[in-house]
Amino acid sequence: MEETIDINRELMLDANAAAGLLYEIFGVEMTAAPTECANCGNEGEIGTLLAFTQGPGVILRCSTCENVVLRIVQTPDEIILDARGAVYLRLARASA
Ligand SMILES: [Zn+2]
């Protein structure tokens, strides 16, 4: 199969590198949280996504189709979470 998307994998880190930032946003450990790619329907834990942290903000891509699932940008005043690439995020409730 021919690779159609050219991504510099040298810039890639495991999504666990973004775990601290996700914890700050959601207040719970997110690496084991299930999510579904809106592009290809691949389901997996956030910790399995491909994380890119070299650009402005953090980008988490689908490990199957490399669609951008989550994009997180931090400014001095706020954190912006773009989750349009995810069908859902499932967060365990603290009381569960
Ligand atoms: Zn996908």
Number of discrete helical segments: 1
What portion of residues is helical? under 10%
Derived from helix and strand composition plus strand pairing, the structural class reads mainly beta
Spatial order of the strands forming the largest sheet: 1-4-5-6-7
**SSE string:** EHEEEEEEE
The low-confidence runs, each spanning 5 or more residues with pLDDT under 50, are none
- Silhouette: globular
**Count of individual beta strands:** 8
Strand coverage percent:
25-35%
How far apart the termini lie comes to 44 Å
Largest sheet: 5 strands, antiparallel
Which compounds are bound in this model?
zinc ion
Average pLDDT, to the nearest integer?
Answer: 84
Radius of gyration: 13 Å
Fold topology:
Blueprint: E1 12-14, H1 19-26, E2 34-37, E3 43-45, E4 50-52, E5 58-61, E6 68-74, E7 79-82, E8 86-89
Antiparallel strand pairs: 1-4, 2-3, 2-8, 4-5, 5-6, 6-7
Bound molecules: zinc ion.
Features:
96 residues, mainly beta, 8 strands, binds zinc ion, single chain, three-stranded antiparallel beta sheet
